[in-house]
Amino acid sequence: MSIRVAIIGAGPSGLAQLRAFQSAHAKGAVMPEVVCFEKQADWGGMWNYTWRTGLDEHGEPVHGSMYRYLWSNGPKECLEFADYSFDEHFGRPISSYPPREVLWDYIQGRVKKAGVRDYIRFNTAVKQVSFDEATREFTVTVHDYQLQKTEVQVFDYVIVASGHFSTPQVPEFAGFERFSGRILHAHDFREATEFEGKDLLIVGSSYSAEDIGSQCYKYGARSITSTYRTQPMGYKWPKGWEERALLSRVEGDMAYFADGSSKRVDAIILCTGYQHHFPFLTDELTLKTGNRLWPAGLYQGVVWEENPQLIYLGMQDLWYSFNLFDAQAWFVRDYILGRIALPEKPLMQADSARWRAREESLETTASMYEFQGSYIKHLIEQTDYPSFDIDAVNQIFLKWKTDKKRDIMGYRDKSYRSVITGTSAVPHHTRWLQALDDSMEEYLRETAPKAQLNTLHRS
User: What's the burial of 446, exposed, middle or buried (CB within 10 Å: 0-12/13-18/19+)?
Assistant: First the structure.
C-alpha cells in the first residue's frame, strides 16, 4: 500500500516539500500519495499578497502578513534555491534586493517547472488533525470552500508547513482603549501611504519594526518614533526618526515613555512578533515554542519526537529561509521514503539537546547565522540536495549587517555575487529610497524588452 502524506500549507516550505518528492520521483523513486492543503486560492503562502486583513472571504483568519511595497530585507543571494537559480528564472542578472512580486514570481518558477500544482487542494482549510495510536494513522478533517463541504481523510504522515508569522502577539498598554488614533499589529499593516503626513509610533525593535518604519518613512510619514523593550535598534536613522524607551501609556493622542518623555502620535503599529499557533492540531501534537533557532522537541529540527510521523517545517527563527526549507524538505522526504532511519527516542532527544545547548551558547549575530548555516549543511550532507557554499553565504550575511549599520536607508542598493552561479547582481535602475513603484514590470524595466515583459514567467 502506498504511503499517504498530508502537507498543510503551500507556502515556501510546503512547496519545498512537494519539490523534494518530485525530485526523487523524477529519479525513479515511487511517489507517495501526497495531498497538500492550502486555505488560500493560490500558492506562495506569505508571498501571495492579499489586501485583506482580519478574516478572508471564507471567514478564515487571514494568513498573510505581507504588505505592499515590501522589498527583500536580506540579499537574495542568501536565499537562492540551490537547484533553481535566479539566473535560470530571469535569464539575466537582477539586483540583490528584489520586491515581493519578483520574489513570488521566482518561487513560482521552480514549482511550475516541477509540475507539482496538481498535488495541491486550494481553498481548503485544515480544521482538525488527530492521531490514532492503534492504527498509527492520522485523521485529517478539512473544509473545501470551493465545493462547500467537509471531508475526512486518513494519512500515514502529516507535515505542518503553515509557518509561524500569521498569528500576532498583541500586547496592551494603558490607555489603548481611549487612544484617539489607529492601533494595528504589523500583521494587519498593508499600505505605507496610509501614514503619509502622520506622526507614527512603532512598538518593537526587530525586523518588522525596522522595515515597516522604513517603508512609512519612504512613503512620507511626517515622523517615526520607535520604542524598544530591551535595547534600541541603533541604526543611523534619517531626520524625523528617533528611538525611545518602552511605551508606558497613552492618553488621548499623547504617548508616554519609560524614560519620562512624551510625544503626540497619530497611529501606533505593534511590531511585537508572532505566535506559533496550530489550532487544527490536538494538544499532544502541538509544538509549543517561542521564535528561536532551535525549538525543543524536533529531531533534526523537523521530526516531532513524541510522534515521528508528524513533521514540522520552517519552525525556526530564520536567518536563512528558502534554502533552509529545502534542506529540511529533502531530509523529510528521505526519512519518509525509508532512506534515513531515525534513532530511538532517547537518542533523538539527546541529539536535540546538543543542538539546543549550542544555540543557547550563541552570543553574537554572526554566531547565530553561522549556527543556522551549520544546521543546513548537516541536513544537506544526509541527502542529495545540491551542495552550496554556506560559508560564502555567511560572509554575505556579515557584509549585509555591516551595510545596514552604515546606511539603513541605502543598504538595499548594494550588490552581491551568487554562490550558486557566480553571477554578480546588477544595481537596480533606481535607488531603493526613490523606487516607489514596486511592480515586477517596473523592476525589470530597462533590462528586458517591453514585449518580453508581457510573457515573462506568466505561464
Answer: exposed
**pTM exceeds 0.90 for this model:** yes
> pLDDT digit string (tens) for 380-436?
999 999 999 999 999 999 999 999 999 999 999 999 999 999 999 999 999 999 999
Rounded percentage of the chain residues whose pLDDT exceeds 70: 97
pLDDT in tens, 213-241: 999 999 999 999 999 998 999 899 999 99
Nearest of 116, 56, 125, 83 to residue 330 by alpha carbon: 83
| CB-facing half-sphere around the CA of 390: CA atoms within 13 A | 21
What is the three-state SS of the chain?
Answer: CCCEEEEECCCHHHHHHHHHHHHHHHCCCCCCEEEEECCCCCCCHHHCCCCCCCECCCCCECCCCCCCCCECCCCHHHCCECCECHHHHHCCCCCCCCEHHHHHHHHHHHHHHHCCHHHEECCEEEEEEEEECCCCEEEEEEEECCCCEEEEEEECEEEECCCCCCEECCCCCECHHHCCCEEEEHHHCCCHHHHCCCEEEEECCCHHHHHHHHHHHHCCCCEEEEEECCCCCCCCCCCCEEEEECEEEEECCEEEECCCCEEECCEEEECCCEECCCCCECHHHCCCCCCCCCCCCEECCCEECCCCCEEECCCCCCCCCHHHHHHHHHHHHHHHCCCCCCCCHHHHHHHHHHHHHHHHCCCCHHHHHHHHHHHHHHHHCCCCCCCCCHHHHHHHHHHHHHHHHHCCCCHHHCCCECCCCCCECCCCCCCHHHCCCCCHHHHCCCCCCHHHHCCCCCC
Q: How does pLDDT run across 120-155, given as a tens digit for each residue? A: 999 999 999 999 999 999 999 999 999 999 999 999
Q: How many CB atoms lie within 10 A of CB 59?
A: 9
Residue with the three cell numbers 478539512: 142
**So what's the pLDDT on residue 1?**
65
Residue with cell 488621548: 252
Instruction: Report helix, strand or coil for 347.
Output: helix
Q: What secondary structure letter does DSSP report for 149?
A: E
Could you count the other beta carbons within 10 Å of the beta carbon of residue 136?
A: 10
Give me the amino acid identity at 344: E
Cell of 357: 545547548
